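Re: pyridoxal-5'-phosphate structure - here you go.
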Amino acid sequence: MVKSAPRGAKTEAIMFNSKMYELGSHRSVIRDLFEFGKKRAAEVGADKVYDFSLGNPNVPAPDGVKAAAEKLLALPDNTVLHGYTSAQGDADVRRAVADSINARFGAGVSPDFIYMTCGAAASLTITLNALSEPGDEFILLAPFFPEYSVFVKAAGATPVVVPFDAATFAPDLDALEKALNAHTKGIIVNSPNNPSGTVYSRATLERIAALLSAASAKFGTHIVLIADEPYRELVYDDIEVPYLMNVYPDTVVCYSWSKSLSLPGERIGYIAISPRLYEKESVYAAVCGAGRALGYVCAPGMFQRVAAACVNELPDIEAYRRNRDLIYSALTEMGYDCVHPDGAFYLFVRSLEPDANAFSDRAKNYGLLIVPGDTFGAPGYVRISYCVSHDMIERSLPAFRALIDSYKK
Ligand code: PLP
């Protein structure tokens, strides 16, 4: 029992939550690099710093976004536009999202099972909080977006990392099978993948689905597949990105337009619940509850409507393809060991020394800001974000050459 201090006695005041303090007082490696870049630019000139750290799209939002926003802003009465929507999102917007999903993937999603969010990060945190009970585990397939660990722990659950097969960058399915147990509540699948650019094949996804179904039957559970899909539309060379609801029944899709429509600062996305999800009504109610508990009253109203107007727009993938082709072929030719990216806008490269942090530090001396893979669950690799100007990639190539040469001396 906690005894209260006697009146007048001095107490040690605890002003903050120590876990939140921990999270807030350490910058991520990516943010550290970004800050370093600004400092270095002041010292040596901005043209000698090649910042490949952030995944901030450099391709402008499609014209349809501007046209939709202008049309909305021209409405005579903007009280509706700027007002609250329903907590789960405007009904017309949810219908437009469901119609688009159904027309493209035949998933049979109902607008009543769409929940509009402030981007994929909110889609994930709401879903994780909606599903988690104390003792639950969520599987993260390495390499993975580092915030997953933060989101899972903040939801009171435990992240369990499953390694990848270094030859294919697909998940190690034997390790996945071993990791599944009675406490497994869900798994996050991110394809096209940040940081590797890999797109999981249909065969891999079907194998994952079979393992989840077998484990669910064995443990008497319904393991939920959370499909984190901000890069769904960023794929090259007609590569298939299977719609996971059609592959595995207990699926929740977490989406955002941050990357596909270059709108990361507008914070707009959605959660879509499969019509085949076990107890889908209760899960949707829990999603609404988690959104409420986390303080997401409604996603940004104007951008809900912009997204609905642009729901079938596609990004200018050609700009990213040119960047991918240039950086992948130039670095491979120099002797770097690169994972061929089929999607997203990241190149994952094997570090030239065992410690990728030391490699990233050395790269800084050449003005190259590249992110060590440790926090992605892939030590020994670095991530290069090529959502930057084509010109910067061209100018950076001599620096990449000098970096690899420095290891030959
Ligand atoms: N998931 C992945 C794999 C990401 O790479 C990102 C952002 O980079 C997010 C989620 C978060 O996206 P959003 O900005 O829409 O919250």
